Amino acid sequence: QLQFVESGGGLVQPGGSLRLSCAASGFTLDYYAIAWFRQAPGQEHEGVSCISRRDGTTYYADSVKGRFTISRDNAKNMVYLQMNSLKPEDTAVYYCAADFRCELIPMKMRYYWGQGTQVTVSS
Q1: Quick check: helix, strand or coil at residue 18?
Q2: In what order do the strands lie in the sheet with 58-60?
Q3: Phi, psi (rounded to 5 degrees) for 108
Q4: What per-residue string of b and e applies to 88-121 under the rule 16 or more CB within 10 Å gives b?
Q5: Tens digits of residue pLDDT in 40-96
Q6: Beta-carbon contacts of residue 113 (< 8 Å; ≥ 6 apart)
Q7: Mean pLDDT of all residues in the chain?
Q8: How far is residue 25's CA from residue 116's CA, in Å, rounded to a whole number?
Q9: What is the largest distance, in Å, between two alpha-carbon atoms of the chain?
Q10: Are 8 and 118 in contact (CB under 8 A)?
Q11: Do the Cβ atoms of 48 and 64 come closer than 8 Å?
């Protein structure tokens, strides 16, 4: 099955850190821009970050800029999201998705959405 498999979520205290991983299953990442999205309970999907396919240009939502870092390792077919200084409002299910250009709009990242990984920030 062609999809991403997200992992690395969990429960963390405010101010803590987590590193999310996104593994490509059944396809190669080389041809795609990869984005992270999140969905909090009762909310729409929100674009968090994206990394381009060619030169690795990165994009971030204002809400996470300076705290989150996206990276990719094409040799391992993996994408990562390092999340620092976590806040309760970062609590959500986090997903990966792919397309040929970076967009932080969910409907524009059309491919390989996974099942997500839960991140809960609470004391």
Answers
A1: strand
A2: 10-12, 117-121, 92-99, 33-39, 46-51, 58-60
A3: -95, -5
A4: eebbbbbbbbbbeebbbebeebeebbbebbebeb
A5: 999 999 999 999 998 999 999 999 999 999 999 999 999 999 999 999 999 999 999
A6: 3, 4, 95, 96, 97
A7: 95
A8: 14
A9: 40
A10: no
A11: yes
Query: pLDDT at position 32, please?
Result: 95
With CA atoms as reference, report the closest residue to 33 among 60, 55, 51: 51
Phi, then psi, of 116 in degrees rounded to 5: 90, 165
* Structural tokens at position 14: 């405010």
How far CA 36 is from CA of 51, 123, in Å, comes to 9, 25
- 3-state secondary structure at position 114: coil
List, as one string, the DSSP characters of 24-48: EESS-GGG-EEEEEEE-TTS--EEE
CA dihedral 64, 8, 76, 107 (to 10 degrees): -50
* Distance of alpha carbon 38 from the chain centroid: 7
Dist. CA 108–CA 60, nearest whole Å:
16
